[in-house]
Amino acid sequence: MTQPGDAQVHYRTIDIDGVSVFYREAGPKNAPTLLLLHGFPSSSRMFNPLFQRLANRYHLIAPDYPGFGNSAAPPPTQFDYTFDHLAQVVDAFTVKLGLSHYVMFMQTMAARSASGWRLRTRSVSMR
């Protein structure tokens, strides 16, 4: 088992509806999953301290929203940068990764009130 501070973080990308979404992942896949959603404007990098502290007990996944961090940034004429659409992208992300049970950790009021809450209510009604 890893000790706090020595977590091995994996950097990955996944295609979601034609957009390359970057994410960080660490911890045992059979542990409870924490989905870490960054605030605006920020990226999944903000969660590095949590990765170091929690990866020995939890499966951590932190995506960058499209247009943020290391995810692709399609022009606004090709991508709808609304909270509803970002919630759809994150929902598709969780489905594609096979995340059926997870705890959401959201940063900032914008994330909590916008994409994170939409994702939560969408997931509850759809699954």
Automatic annotation (TrEMBL):
<keyword id="KW-0378">Hydrolase</keyword>
<dbReference type="GO" id="GO:0004301">
    <property type="term" value="F:epoxide hydrolase activity"/>
</dbReference>
<feature type="domain" description="AB hydrolase-1">
    <location>
        <begin position="32"/>
        <end position="104"/>
    </location>
</feature>
<dbReference type="GO" id="GO:0018786">
    <property type="term" value="F:haloalkane dehalogenase activity"/>
</dbReference>
<dbReference type="InterPro" id="IPR051340">
    <property type="entry name" value="Haloalkane_dehalogenase"/>
</dbReference>
<dbReference type="Pfam" id="PF00561">
    <property type="entry name" value="Abhydrolase_1"/>
</dbReference>
<protein>
    <submittedName>
        <fullName>Haloalkane dehalogenase</fullName>
        <ecNumber>3.8.1.5</ecNumber>
    </submittedName>
</protein>
<dbReference type="InterPro" id="IPR000073">
    <property type="entry name" value="AB_hydrolase_1"/>
</dbReference>
<dbReference type="InterPro" id="IPR029058">
    <property type="entry name" value="AB_hydrolase_fold"/>
</dbReference>
